[in-house]
Amino acid sequence: MKLQLEKFGKTLISRELGSEALKAFQPTLSELSKDEEVEIDFSGVLTLSPSWADEFLSPLLNQLEGKLVLLASDNLSVHATLKILQEVNKRPFNIKS
Amino acid sequence: MEEKLLTIGQAAEYLGISLNTLRRWDESGKLVAIKKDSGTHRYYREQDLEIFASDLMKFASEWIEDDAPFPGTFYCATSSIFNARLTKMEYALMQKPGFEKLYSLITLITGEIGDNSFAHNLGKWPDTAGIFFGYDLDKRIVVLADRGLGILETLRRVRPGLPSHVAAVEVAFTEFISGRAPEKRGNGLKLVREVVTDQPFDLFYTSGDAEVRMKGSNKIFSVTRGQRTLRGCLAKIEF
What we know:
Structural class of chain B: alpha+beta
Mean pLDDT of chain A: 94
Oligomer: heterodimer
Low-confidence stretches of chain B: none
Number of helices of chain A: 3
Largest interface: A-B, 24 and 28 residues
Strand order of the largest sheet of chain B: 3-4-5-7-6
Radius of gyration of chain B: 19 Å
Order of helices and strands of chain A: EEHEEHEHE
Number of strands of chain B: 7
Shape of chain B: globular
Low-confidence stretches of chain A: none
Helix content of chain A: 40-55%
Distance between the termini of chain B: 39 Å
Shape of chain A: globular
Structural class of chain A: alpha/beta
Number of strands of chain A: 6
Mean pLDDT of chain B: 91
Largest sheet of chain A: 4 strands, parallel
């Protein structure tokens, strides 16, 4: 399945809202078939911060591992945030260009 | 044509402060009112109020040092108000020539510093909850401040041995640790440091007597001890 991240907002900054977004996404996640990938599309997102993403993408990475696929983005804040989250989590994201 | 003057009530509304504060500022000389024909009523030129409200660092420093009042337009009582104002700034930045791509990094570092204030002081604000958030895109400056616990007190919960404000700010900007550990990891200020190092942005950040000054083309991150000890945190971003 593909998730348009902008459905959670275009300016994704606070930890609090990142955590809320994950809770809102959990029911959809539980409906996934066993080997189904989750593609995250950043288009439309203006700013993504590590606080928001650490609440949303880090738990998804732990849960889905290689089945979490991030679609490449040319947004500078997305780049910077993914770079630091990989350092924090000590594992790379599966980024599809 | 005679310039239109605002009454003290209109000026109070314009700045988002009380009539009494305006009267006190007039008496102390901080913001002097105009009195027509030597009367007692106070009036203000809109242009003067605009200039007065533009000194963001002065308002933010005086607020965290002395709890001095400042124009209400810069006050974000809650995280959602901060987020709404941040989105407004982001939109204005996107329209600014030369910032079509950089806008997202300026929004990111502003958002991280502001969100940090709320996340680490939730339910623990010593007095006034919320933050100062002011920006002037023509002058290319963003100022954020809070009257919260500050970095040292926040981090001592997880690192009781931290000896000073300087050591605490150093840890906050360089290590993956959080005052809200173990349930949350702090990584915002680390990214702020990386972004400021790589991009044409300058940063001044202070908490307690610790100061970070990253300026110019050869920016090296270092924390030094300043002359003043401030409560909470104060940050100035220039771009």
